[in-house]
Amino acid sequence: LLAGLWLPGGERVLGDHGARRDVAESYLEGLQDALPRLRSATGAARLGVVVDEPWAAAVLAGTLPTASGYRTVRSLPREEA
Fold first, then answer.
1. Residue 10 falls within a domain, yes or no?
2. Distance, CA of 66 to CA of 23 (rounded, Å)
3. Phi, psi of 6 (to 5 degrees)
4. How many domains does the chain have?
5. Residue 20 belongs to what domain range?
6. What pLDDT is attached to residue 16?
7. Three-class HEC string of the chain
8. 1 vs 53: CA distance, rounded Å
9. Domain membership flag for residue 65
């Protein structure tokens, strides 16, 4: 998710610790809001969330290019990613 979001200055959200935290908190809040409504609408006792991150390998390897293309965004530790 973070690899595909950009800051107003043109760089990826991934390179900004505060922005990463804010997006993750917002994502979690959205899930916490949506899941009870989905359970109610479907009658499901449990729901699973699947996150598909096509850039995961590049994020972990530190090979995701910056906006300029001259550098790469520093890799994230697996625990944080």
1. yes
2. 19
3. -120, 145
4. 1
5. 2-49
6. 92
7. CHHHCECCCCCEHHHCHHHHHHHHHHHHHHHHHHHHHHHHHHCCCCCCCCCCCCCHHHHHHCCCECCCCCCECCCCCCCCC
8. 6
9. no
